[in-house]
Amino acid sequence: MSADNFDVVVIGSGPGGYVAAIRASQLGLKTALIEKGNLGGTCLNVGCIPSKALLHSTEMLHFTKDKAANHGIQVDGVSVDLSQLMKRKDTVVNTLKGGVEMLVTKKGGKIFKGLGVIQSPGTVLVKQEDGEITLQTKHIIIATGSTPIELPFLPYDSETIVSSDQAIAFDSIPEKLAVIGASAIGLELGSVWARLGSEVTIVEYLPKIAPGFDDDICKISERVFKRQGLKFLTATEVTSADSSENKVVLKAQRKGKEVSIEADKVLVAVGRKPNTLNAGIEEAGVKVDEKGRIEIDHHFQSNIPGIYAIGDVVAGPMLAHKAEEEGVAVAEIIAGKAGHVNYDVIPGVIYTDPEIASVGLSEQQAQESGIEVNTGKFNLSANGRAISSDVTEGMVKVIADAKSDKLLGVQILAHNASELIAAAVTHMEYGGSAEDLARTIHAHPTLSESLKEAALAVDGRGLHSI
Amino acid sequence: MAAEVKVPPVGESISTGILAVWHVKEGDRVERDQLLFELETDKITSEGLAEVSGIISIKTEEGEEVDIGQVVAVIEESEVDDEGKAEESEPTSTAKTEAQPEVQEDAPVSPAVRRIAAETGVDPASVEGSGKKGRVTKGDMLEATANSDEKQEMPAAAPTQNVERTSRKKMTGLRSKIADRLVQAQQEAAILTTFNEVDMNAVMRLRKQHQEKFVAKYGHKLGFMSFFVKAVVNALKEVPGVNAQIDGNEIVTNHYYDIGIAVGTEKGLVVPVVRDCDQKSFSGIEGDIIQYAGKAREGKLAIDDLQGGVFTITNGGIYGSMLSTPILNRPQSGILGMHSIQERPMAVNGEVVIRPMMYLALSYDHRLVDGKEAVTFLVKVKEAIEDPTTLLFEI
Q: What is the Cβ-side half-sphere exposure of residue B14, based on CA atoms within 13 angstroms?
């Protein structure tokens, strides 16, 4: 076999692609990973990771400015060095990027930097800076990810009308920031800039923020975030925009009335679309659906044998951990093993403070599916650790099947909800019931006890609630 | 309820042994038929099995000398048979052999499943799991308990009120062994049965004639069985093919005459073996049978007592059976079925006479025994019973 012959060629090195490459190498497949930009894809370079770095830094700022005094910590003259804040973020990204390269190559995968273009099933051309190289392969995995959706009347200009790609790297703090879309990206980056001093208005087309989460959670989060200074315009549709010299005025319809929102910068965070251009996907005859997602079967294989697709470029939630699981599964399937992803139990998190995390169904989704449920709730304000740590905002809600008591969903608004949700995911992965969660010992004092208490409350057995 | 664990009888001449190894620990939960200990005697090593399920309390140290029948442990029976099984979290480290796979089947069960198992007695192991890799979920348990509730409610709704139309309990070890062996015999051998009838007149006359002196001398009665045992030994000598068995690709022919006698007990049928019947007198045979019957009733038969027979005689006649087709006692190749004696009009020398008649059935393994041999064998038995003097001359 010559150096340009592979068992697997992965196009795209985001969390789906690089994990697929690692797993394939682990399973003894000769694997190539092609990346046209930076290793790690959106998640590592302009998504999950840099936004978490910014969120953490600004959370500390928020504590120092607004909470420290209450703890007896006097800090005078607090100021922000935005360039240092961004520098640290870049360090975080670079550290992890190095990690990806090291992991892939140590496992035996070969990295090609350049644009990967499918020539035919079994042939991929890599357009590198210094020329082209053709790779022969038995299997191709498309993991090209997604890009932010652009609003037709509000084209990105990288300066005032931006996507998350730029909103993680403003070089100055905008005085007024308008955010279109109150989902994860809008809420997270809205929080970052609000903490840094921007006047942030978040416009949401749907009647609630964090749509997709349980109504109870949405209601409380909106209240909490408003206290933090975010402004919300829900059930509001942005219809047009007037741009003039570094200012934008958005025109929107709200309950039949026109409202206008003035901003220095507009972050459009209305979703992402799959990347199927430039990689020779359609040219190779790979079928995509009406939303531009590659159609795949249960084995992640497209209509063209030997061409597979995973992650944001296929159906399902556009989440890094979903893509990772698919990366593992597709590599295992190619290696003749039984790869599988349980789509019913994928956690979703919004990394605000408090964080919003959920897995499975909300109460409303269960009802819409005609499932009779019992629910249990617990407020963090009654949790000992939450009081000690000054993080009493939020609640845990457990949704269980009324007949079998099987956990159908868990919704958390709490400090560290992203970590708390893991226990619920584990229980659900094994078909656990609310009672199983309630009968599992949780360390005291921890925030996780609220999960247990909410599970107890499903059966009206809450110990630390009235 | 507490059940005593006694040292089981191992053989005629053995009265003591050394309790060599305990396979369970103090306080362990044991299941019925689980291996508890090994007993060493100067002749053999035998095993002590649990007769009930429960928590064991050990009374005797390893290496101690124990008497047959001595209580070496007590098993506290649990109220719900399967409760402990669900509670058990760790396999007992010392338990090996048969006990282990069962413990391993106790995959970890979730806390809610454990609670329901403890409260309802529904064994999670008996429930089909819908969770990851077949794990039993709370929903599965609720469904299973709902089903068992329905089962219990059904009889009440049936026309015969307050009477359970069926009841269920676990098979005893003996019963399940009997079941296995009978099915095995049916599946492995080509069982065929040939019939004949025998005039019991001569045997009855001889018994009547000699009974008094016989009892005076030996202390027990002269029964029918000794005649049949002797008749069978005679026939086996005449037709050695019946005194043989198949072992893999080989035919093993026995040159000894250990005859099994089926004895009904409360727990089920057992077949103790009367040894060397060709060398024993009528009284010797009768004496052995009487002794075995007593041991069987008291549940004191040892494994040794039941092994090594070459042929079996079963008497359904004592329960009034007219005719039956016995199933072979594997690996034996023949079994004689005796039946009830009835007076019937028989044609003898052109005249109708009333005679005490018994039907005989010989089931045999047709793989090994040809029809001619089988029929000849049964005719030989018939002739010996109708004219016991032939036994005298071994003709």
A: 25
Name the percent of chain B lying above pLDDT 70.
Answer: 86
Distance of CA A310 to the CA centre of its chain: 16
Q: Which of B86, B79, B77 is nearest to B117 (CA)?
A: B86
- In chain A, how many domains are there? 3
**B142 — alpha (psi -120 to 50), left (phi > 0) or beta?**
alpha
Which are the contacts of B149, defined by CB distance < 8 A and separation ≥ 6? none
| Closest C-alpha among A304, A299, A357 to residue A326 | A299
Q: Enumerate the residues of chain A whose CB falls inside 8 A of the CB of residue B132.
A: 429-431
Minimum distance, in Å, between the CA of residue B135 and any CA atom of chain A: 8
pLDDT at B395 over 80: no
Nearest-angstrom CA–CA distance, B173 and B181: 12
Is A317 a residue whose pLDDT tops 60?
yes
B123 in Cβ contact with B151 (< 8 Å):
no
Indicate the pLDDT class of residue B101, thresholds 50, 70 and 90: very low
Mean pLDDT computed over A8-37 = 97
Contact across the interface for A404 and B142, Cβ inside 8 Å = yes
Domains located in chain B, CATH noted:
2-170 (2.40.50.100), 175-393 (3.30.559.10)
**Torsion angles phi and psi, residue A196, rounded to 5:** -80, -5
CA atoms within 13 A on the CB side of A383: 29
How close is the nearest chain A Cα to the Cα of B111, in Å?
A: 5
Asked if the structure places residue A235 within a domain, the reply is yes
CA distances from B309 to A87, A237, A421, B305 (A): 92, 94, 68, 9
Report yes or no: A431 at the B interface, CB cutoff 8 Å: yes
Looking at the fold, whether A194 and A226 belong to one and the same domain comes out as yes
Please name the residue of chain A whose CA is at the shortest distance from the CA of residue B133: A430
Q: How many Cβ atoms from other residues are within 10 Å of residue A321's Cβ?
A: 17
pLDDT attached to residue B23:
87
What is the ipTM for the molecules in this complex?
0.71
A367 token code pair: 């009802």
My answer on whether omega of the bond before B388 falls inside 30° of 0, hence cis, is no
Q: Which of residues 396-425 of A touch B (CB under 8 A)?
A: 401, 403-406
Size of the A and B interface in Cβ pairs below 8 Å: 50
Nearest CA-CA distance, residue B60 and chain A, Å? 40
Give the pLDDT score at B248. 83
Phi-psi region of A361 (alpha: psi -120 to 50; beta: other; left: phi over 0): beta
Question: In this structure, is residue A408 part of a structural domain?
Answer: yes
CATH code where residue A248 lies: 3.50.50.60
| Chain A hits for B113, Cβ within 8 Å | 436
The amino acid present at B282, given as its one-letter code, is: F
Catalytic positions of B, written as ranges? 366, 370
Tell whether B325 is within 8 A of chain A (Cβ). no
Strands B65-67 and B45-49: unpaired
**How confident is the model over A218-271, as pLDDT tens digits?**
999 999 999 999 999 999 999 999 988 789 999 999 989 999 999 999 999 999
What's residue B43's pLDDT?
Answer: 60
What are the tens digits of pLDDT across the range B232-259? 999 999 999 999 998 888 899 999 999 9
Q: Is B112 on the interface with A (CB under 8 A)?
A: yes
> Which is it for strands A257-263 and A247-254: parallel, antiparallel or unpaired?
antiparallel
Expressed as residue numbers, the domain containing A11 is 5-148+273-341
Sign of CA dihedral A313, A315, A320, A322: negative
What is the rounded CA–CA span in Å between residue A405 and residue B222?
Answer: 72
